[in-house]
Design brief:
The chain has 8 helices and 5 strands. The chain is of the alpha/beta class. The protein has one domain: Rossmann fold (3-Layer(aba) Sandwich), CATH 3.40.50.1010. The longest helix is centred in the middle third of the chain and has 16 residues. It is globular and about 40 Å long.
Length: 148
């Protein structure tokens, strides 16, 4: 069975329609049907909740009710959550080496530890790691295209 780490840029479009939702929903559906194993560091809950808040309060794209519904959808379909504290040292090493934020590096560290790929819609993250780590970081579109 395919195992992937997913980051907030993949999970936000699960709960709020936006660019990339079609591909993200294909991944979510594969997970819901038991065709994929998905995981993420605990940080993902705060990142997605914060994105919901931004879309509601800062951008006016969601009502309060829609924001609460998006959070309910998140809670109902979360990937397996892995504690991020044990990943912190490796994430910091990656951040220092690749000059990329630690919070993004937590996802990369988890993918490396689990010997699987990280799926992201964050092009800067993918570009930071793709040259040296190859397919350890997949774009959302690449991952969705791999699904049956």
């Amino acid at each position: 069975m395919t195992r992937w780490v997913v980051d907030a840029s993949v999970v936000v479009p699960w709960v709020i329609p936006e660019r990339g939702s079609e591909a993200a929903l294909r991944i979510r559906d594969g997970y819901a049907r038991g065709r994929l194993e998905l995981m993420a560091p605990g940080l993902i809950v705060a990142e997605v909740a914060n994105a919901i808040w931004k879309k509601c309060r800062l951008r006016g794209e969601l009502t309060d009710q829609e924001a609460r519904q998006a959070l309910d959808l998140l809670e109902a379909g979360l990937p397996e959550i892995v504690p991020d504290a044990p990943l912190a040292a490796q994430a910091l090493r990656l951040a220092l080496t690749y000059r990329h934020p630690v919070y993004d590096c937590l996802y990369v560290a988890l993918a490396l530890n689990e010997r699987c790929s990280l799926v992201t819609a964050d092009e800067a993250l993918r570009k930071a790691f793709a040259p040296s780590l190859g397919r350890i970081v997949l774009s959302l579109e690449e991952a969705a295209a791999e699904l049956p």
